[in-house]
């Protein structure tokens, strides 16, 4: 069965360190997204990609970067982790060019704590 | 500026009764609306959607109503079950014209925590 996985599931790091969160999908979807979930804010879009070599900033992209070298993976990098980046991070994917409801499939999430 | 809002952070309902979760939006260009359900320590999963050309969509115990003039949608769960206890997110999508392709970006609300008591 196709799926979307994230690793690690839990991560504790220190302020100033670089952190990379992995996202891998086997749906063969062109679209991939990174969100963070914080109480009172719902799911906020960090970065997204419509295909290989394509990346775009979302509403809360400061301090984060992504790169897309293949269809399956979209790693999220925190260049210099800050305590404000303590959150739960979700990766998602969807088909490109659908005239349907734009449904996104989500991974299980990564809980990141920055001390 | 929050384009999709869920103004009720939480809702508590007795098993067997109706649960009504509400969502408001400000961008009149949104043309598809989705509801996602999220259990603790899991990712959100798609529940039900509605196109802006409809005012109602039903799937088993779940019905979504859309009032375009009020920019308001609601999710009805009847009858509510303890297993429905979760966080519910509404989301909005944009398409390139009528029947066109999705831009792929969803705008989410803040979520509502639903608790169904046995």
Notes on the protein architecture:
The complex is a heterodimer of chains A (115) and B (118). With 115 residues, chain A is an all-beta fold. Chain A has strands spanning 4-7, 10-13, 19-25, 31-38, 42-51, 54-57, 64-66, 76-78, 87-94, 105-106, 110-114. In chain A, strands 2, 4, 5, 6, 9, 10 and 11 form a 7-stranded mixed beta sheet that branches. Chain A has a 4-stranded antiparallel beta sheet with strand order 1-3-8-7, with no helix packed on it. The radius of gyration of chain A is 13 Å and the shape is globular. The model of chain A has no long low-confidence stretch (mean pLDDT 93). Chain B is globular and about 45 Å long. Chain B is mostly beta strands and 118 residues long. In chain B, strands 2, 4, 5, 9, 10 and 11 form a 6-stranded mixed beta sheet that branches. The model of chain B has no long low-confidence stretch (mean pLDDT 92). Chain B has strands spanning 4-5, 10-14, 19-25, 32-38, 45-51, 56-59, 62-67, 72-77, 86-93, 107-108, 112-117. Chain B is built from no helices and 11 strands. The A-B interface holds A 4, 31, 33, 35, 40-45, 48, 50, 58, 90, 92, 94, 96-109 and B 6, 9, 32, 34, 36, 41-46, 49, 51, 89, 91, 93, 95, 99-111.
Average pLDDT of chain B, rounded to a whole number, is: 92
State the shape of chain A: globular
Please state the overall shape of chain B, judged from the principal axes of the Cα atoms. Answer: globular
Global structural class of chain B = mainly beta
Query: Helix share of residues of chain A?
Result: under 10%
Distance between the termini of chain A: 37 Å
DSSP summary, beta strand count of chain B: 11
Extract low-pLDDT stretches of chain B: none
Task: Quote the distance from N terminus to C terminus of chain B.
Answer: 38 Å
Major beta sheet summary of chain B = 6 strands, mixed
Number of helices of chain A: 0
Radius of gyration of chain A: 13 Å
| Strand residue content of chain B | over 45%
């Amino acid at each position: 069965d196709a799926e979307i996985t994230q690793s690690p599931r839990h991560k504790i790091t220190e302020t100033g360190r670089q952190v990379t969160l992995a996202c891998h999908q086997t749906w063969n979807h062109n679209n991939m997204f990174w969100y963070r979930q914080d109480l009172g804010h719902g799911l906020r879009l960090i970065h997204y990609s419509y295909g290989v070599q394509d990346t775009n900033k979302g509403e809360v992209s400061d301090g984060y970067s992504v790169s897309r070298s293949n269809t399956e993976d979209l790693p999220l990098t925190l260049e210099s982790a800050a305590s404000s980046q303590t959150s739960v991070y979700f990766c998602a994917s969807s088909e490109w060019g659908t005239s349907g409801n734009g449904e996104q499939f989500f991974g299980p999430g990564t809980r990141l704590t920055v001390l | 500026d929050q384009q999709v809002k869920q103004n009720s952070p939480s809702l508590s309902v007795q098993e067997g009764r109706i649960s009504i979760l509400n969502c408001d939006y400000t961008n009149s260009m949104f043309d598809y609306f989705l509801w996602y359900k999220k259990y603790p320590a899991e990712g959100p999963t798609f529940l039900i959607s509605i196109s802006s050309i409809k005012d109602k969509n039903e799937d088993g115990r779940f019905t979504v109503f859309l009032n375009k003039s009020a920019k308001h949608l609601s999710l009805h769960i009847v009858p509510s079950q303890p297993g429905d206890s979760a966080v519910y997110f509404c989301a909005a999508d944009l398409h390139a014209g009528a029947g066109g392709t999705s831009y792929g970006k969803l705008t989410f609300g803040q979520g509502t925590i639903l608790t169904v008591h046995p």
